[in-house]
Design a protein that fits this description.
This protein is α/β, with parallel strands linked by helices and 172 residues long. It has a single domain, classed as 3-Layer(aba) Sandwich (Leucine Aminopeptidase, subunit E, domain 1), CATH 3.40.220. The chain has 5 helices and 6 strands. A 6-stranded mixed beta sheet has the order 1-6-5-2-4-3, with helices on both faces. Strand 5, helix 4 and strand 6 (151-156) form a beta-alpha-beta unit. Helix 3 packs across helix 4 (131-143) and helix 4 crosses helix 5 (159-169). The longest helix has 18 residues, at 95-112. The relative contact order is 0.22. It binds adenosine-5'-diphosphate. The site of adenosine-5'-diphosphate has 21 residues, from helix 1.
């Protein structure tokens, strides 16, 4: 069955889902934006697991387009799935990498058995991706993903982001 897509306005750290997705950076050691908010609200257990990943399976960090799970610490979720969006470029089309963030995160969710997953607008903050295009890639990729996840909620931080995702959902 196709995944059901929902939109909500707000802070993803307060959203209850089996898994919430973090727009992390390759170091996995924290950053600004949604990454900083997730580590602040989730507490030190998330960073401890990220550090352990760097010492074992991911010594060079997590490449853009890939995803990995940790505990969600104190957040109202069971897991945080960290994915690294591409930095937006006008010289090079990195859309496939951004689409891969959503596909890889859903593949990790399937491995965990997560049925509800919340995403922020990956790459559309500090990494500079224009919101309308980020929304089109996000919605298009989730819509066509082969996954056992039932519901994906995009938790949008601000009305402009919400409107961009509404337009993408309605095909505008
Ligand atoms: P990136 O580095 O991938 O661009 P950012 O965290 O800078 O990641 O931004 C990604 C998106 O997440 C932006 O639209 C930003 O406004 C949004 N964002 C920031 N904080 C939160 C939050 N607490 N909940 C949901 N979205 C957030």
């Amino acid at each position: 069955m196709a995944v059901s897509i929902e939109l909500t306005l707000g802070d993803i750290t307060r959203f209850g889902a089996d898994a919430i997705v973090n727009a992390a950076n390759s170091s996995l050691l924290g950053g600004g934006g949604v990454d900083g908010a997730i580590h602040r609200a989730g507490g030190p257990d998330i960073l401890a697991e990220c550090r352990a990943l760097r010492q074992t399976t991911l010594p060079d960090g997590l490449p853009a387009g890939q995803a990995v799970a940790t505990t969600a610490g104190a957040l109202p979720a069971d897991w945080v799935i960290h994915t690294v969006g591409p930095v937006y470029s006008t010289m090079e089309d990195r859309s496939a990498t951004l689409a891969s963030c959503y596909r890889s995160s859903l593949a990790v969710a399937d491995e965990l058995g997560a049925r509800t997953v919340a995403f922020p607008a990956v790459s559309a903050g500090v990494y500079g991706w224009p919101m309308a295009d980020a929304a089109r890639i996000a919605v298009g990729t989730v819509r066509t993903a082969d996954t056992r996840v039932d519901t994906v909620t995009f938790v949008l931080f601000g009305r402009d982001a919400y409107r961009a995702f509404e337009d993408a959902l309605s095909g505008a």
